[in-house]
Specification:
It contains 47 helices and ten strands. It is mainly alpha-helical and 830 residues long. It has a domain of 236 residues. The strands form three sheets. Strands 3-7-8-9-10 form a five-stranded antiparallel beta sheet. A hairpin with an 8-residue loop joins strand 9 and strand 10. It starts with a helix and ends in an 8-residue tail after the last helix. The relative contact order is 0.03.
């Protein structure tokens, strides 16, 4: 603005100057400008001198003659002799100090003149001319457009020659300025094709006494290293540039160069030629010692250097050998978050080195990392670099878990865990889950995790998080299924329903397998099993597609284990109890076509069941305080098992027992399940007869006769329908007397296929007779026993159906016509 106002003033009033007795008139000035076009060198030279003297008097004079076309005329003189050229270049240098002149030269119309000026610099041998040219080009190069314009000219050769040879500090300064402009241009990427220079000269200028030259040298090197050109970096490596920069940053007397020295180091480390070679030098070791006590303002760049080196796997061993990890750990004492983050990254990088991981992993280090995490947690920041460092140690060193617990770090991790994936990344969250999973495996650590909020969070994760997080949550829950606290939360929050929803919609096979593993692990706990059964576990598992069952054989195994633990359910679902399925107390059987889902025993006790159904209950838990002694005579001989006398004896025994217990010391629980004192006594009584038998065949026949005696009143001549009616009437009387549909089987005095087969299986299990219980179509029930073939010396086992209705005690080979007719099957199996 000042120059513009001065220009206006010069136009309004032509200057008239008197200096040393000489008067400079406007007409003479304008004449001199015109004479610059003369072909006579002496005339041009005199005019230039006159104008030069006039311009030196006052700034307005320079502006005045510039406005009268001096610039164009001066540019036309670049091809004249050396004397004219010297004055011309000096004059042009003065004009470049005017803003309007610089803007004017930046127009396309002067491009040829600028190129001509550059060629003068390249080809002219006069040192003064070169100095003036380089000074002007350095100023013009402030424009990126002009830099691009002159870059393709062979300027580097003369520039580098001057730098190497000149002793003129001013020329050197201007040359460095021009070089800085040129290497700062985008076109500098072509340097490998033309740059041929002894960089040791440039590096040597870093110690030049003239500060301006030293600064320019630093800046040029900074620009050259910025491009990471292998050829240039190779040259710098030869002259040990990084070592020099390390010496500079550790020299307290060169603080003014510290920042740019760090920049040069960072630039050099980006090139494969100079990224890490200096690790083996003494300068680097000196630097590593210096960083432990360096001024705070250099802490960040120092850890940046070390962190970059730790990223290089091939250098970690050397860094470990030089104990550089101690220098890295020393940065944890600072509070700057950027410093701490980079320190944690460096520690994580070094932790991948086996020996370094063992050396660095100390309680004090973990304590510091957890202090950082705790502070950030209080400040509600999700910065997780320190967390990642802890997770890396956990992944790489088995001792980490114990140290985490000793330093109470798990409490910090639990707070991060409660905040969830929205607070930290999923990767870090999964890392925390991995630590918690490992803790859940160790009894000494489990106690610190057993809280309701912990289990609630895990269950919520399983329900809402990604498959990976859900799998980890499920795996942790598996390790706590033995704790009442976990099962309480699991059942309270409908964990079985949440888990079964995943099974119903199988989207991830691994997650499905983990869910099945949880269910399998919980099968020892009745409360959890019952909850899963109420959530239709059996129905869902049976309905899984064949290809999923093939991939997840655990589903079939779970079904088998549940059936093994819950025999009433197995018989309801499969219509069969095998020989290995031993009936225990509170086995129950629904006699009839039950259409609803299978009811649990607790449901039967508290709900009203339609009177159309009869539920037979096996209960051997009644405590016999004294043993009934039959006073009658006679015993059962195995050899006479089919005699009338044996049947008569068993009938008298049954009648005597029934009469005795009708007046026995027990009471009914009307409306609920009543105790059964009969069944345990029957078992105790018949076992005495079974002991007398020498073979299992004989035991089967004795037991069949015993049951026939128990469940048949001495009434003859009834046809089948009458017998069925008589049985139904008997059962209805019992239901009325007990006030319940649940009838203990010991109360039965009459029995058809169902009743006899159930009692046979119950007593057979108690007396070690290998028998099964099978239900066929149309409510046909029968028992199969496993016996040696007759004669027994062939050593072959066969299954036989026991006849409990027609020819009591007969054994029918399974699959035979007689057996199929008894079981209401087709005469022959295909």
């Amino acid at each position: 603005m000042k120059n513009q106002s001065s220009s206006k003033s010069a136009k309004s009033k032509a200057p008239k100057v008197i200096m040393n007795g000489v008067t400079y008139l406007t007409k003479q000035v304008e004449t001199s400008i015109a004479l610059l076009d003369s072909s006579e060198d002496s005339v041009v030279l005199d005019a230039l001198v006159y104008l030069s003297l006039y311009a030196d008097i006052h700034e307005n004079n320079l502006i005045y003659i510039q406005e009268h076309g001096l610039l164009q005329k001066l540019l036309n003189l670049l091809h004249r002799n050396a004397n004219i050229l010297r004055v011309t270049l000096k004059f042009l240098g003065m004009l470049l100090g005017i803003e309007e002149v610089m803007l004017e030269l930046n127009q396309n119309t002067y491009d040829e003149k600028i190129i001509e000026l550059s060629k003068v610099f390249i080809s002219h041998h006069d040192s003064y001319v070169k100095e003036c040219c380089v000074s002007m080009l350095a100023k013009l190069a402030a424009s990126s457009r002009i830099v691009t314009l002159i870059f393709n000219l062979d300027l580097f050769a003369p520039i580098l020659h001057i730098i190497e040879k000149t002793v003129d500090m001013d020329l050197l300064e201007h040359t460095l300025e021009l070089l800085l402009r040129l290497v700062g241009a985008l076109a500098a990427v072509v340097l490998p094709e033309s740059f041929d220079f002894n960089v040791s000269v440039l590096v040597g200028l870093l110690n030049n006494e003239k500060k301006k030259i030293a600064h320019l040298s630093f800046q040029v090197i900074q620009k050259l290293t910025f491009y990471c050109l292998d050829m240039i970096q190779r040259l710098f490596r030869r002259v040990k540039l990084i070592e020099i920069m390390l010496d500079i940053v550790t020299d307290g007397n060169k603080q003014e160069y510290h920042d740019i020295a760090f920049d040069i180091i960072f630039n050099s480390m980006k090139s494969k030629e100079t990224s890490d070679y200096f690790v083996e030098t003494m300068e680097f070791l000196k630097f590593c010692q210096w960083v432990k006590t360096c001024p705070d303002k250099y802490v960040l760049p120092c850890i940046l250097v070390l962190e970059k080196l730790t990223r290089i796997p091939s250098r970690r061993q050397l860094i470990f050998d030089f104990s550089v990890e101690e220098s890295i750990i020393s940065f944890l004492k600072y509070k700057d978050e950027r410093v701490l983050n980079k320190t944690c990254e460096a520690i994580s990088n070094m932790a991948t080195h086996t020996y370094c991981c063992e050396e660095m992993l100390k309680p004090a280090l973990l304590k510091k990392l957890f202090d950082i995490l705790a502070k950030r947690d209080e400040e509600d920041t999700g910065n997780e670099v320190a967390l990642k460092t802890v997770l890396d140690f956990n992944r790489l060193n088995l001792n980490t878990l114990d140290m985490i617990h000793k330093t109470a770090g798990h409490k910090v991790l639990l707070r991060y865990f409660q905040k969830g994936i929205g607070y930290i990344s999923e990767e870090s969250f999964l890392g925390i889950l991995d630590i918690l999973y490992k803790m859940s495996l160790c009894p000494q650590f489990q106690e610190d995790l057993v809280t309701s909020s912990f289990f609630e969070k895990l269950l919520n994760l399983f329900r809402t998080a990604s498959a990976s997080a859900a799998i980890s949550a499920c795996e942790i829950l598996i390790n706590f299924v033995h704790t009442p606290e976990m099962r309480c939360v699991f059942l309270l929050l409908d964990g079985p329903g949440i888990f079964m929803e995943k099974v119903r919609n199988p989207k991830d096979i691994k997650l499905m397998k983990t869910v099945l593993l949880f269910i399998h692990s919980s099968l020892v706990h009745d409360d959890v099993v019952e909850a899963f059964l109420r959530s239709k576990l059996i129905e869902v598992l049976k309905g899984l597609p064949a290809h999923l069952k093939e991939k997840m054989p655990l589903a079939t195994k779970i079904l088998l284990l549940i059936y093994k633990r819950h025999l009433p359910l197995k018989f309801f679902e499969t219509h069969r109890l095998d020989i290995t399925d031993k009936i225990q107390n509170m086995f129950y059987l629904i006699n009839g076509q039950w259409q609803a889902p299978f009811p649990l025993f607790k449901d039967l006790e508290v709900s009203s069941i339609s009177t159309a159904y009869v539920i037979y209950v096996v209960d051997c838990s009644y405590d016999l305080k004294y043993e009934y002694e039959y006073s009658g005579s006679g015993s059962i001989s195995p050899g006479k098992i089919s005699s009338e006398r044996t049947v008569s004896t068993l009938s008298r025994v049954s009648s005597s027992l029934s009469s005795y217990f009708r007046r026995g010391p027990f009471h009914l629980n009307y409306g609920q399940l009543s105790p059964d004192p009969f069944l345990p006594t029957y078992i105790c009584h018949v076992s005495k007869y079974l002991i007398q038998a020498s073979t299992t065949r004989d035991k089967v026949k004795i037991l069949a006769k015993y049951i026939e005696a128990m469940l048949c009143e001495p009434v003859e001549g009834y046809i089948k329908l009458e017998k069925v009616h008589h049985l139904k009437l008997h059962v209805e009387i019992l239901k009325h007397k007990l006030g319940s549909n649940m009838i203990p089987i010991g109360y039965l005095r009459l029995g058809g296929l169902c009743e006899r087969a159930l009692i046979f299986k119950t007593i057979a299990d108690k007396c070690c007779i290998p028998a099964s219980l099978v239900k066929g179509t149309e409510s046909f029930y029968w028992n199969e026993v496993l016996l040696f073939d007759s004669p027994p010396n062939n050593g072959k086992l066969k299954l036989y159906v026991v006849d409990l209705i027609n020819n009591i005690g007969d054994l029918l080979v399974v699959g035979s016509r007689a057996a199929n007719q008894y079981c209401n099957k087709p005469a022959w199996n295909g």
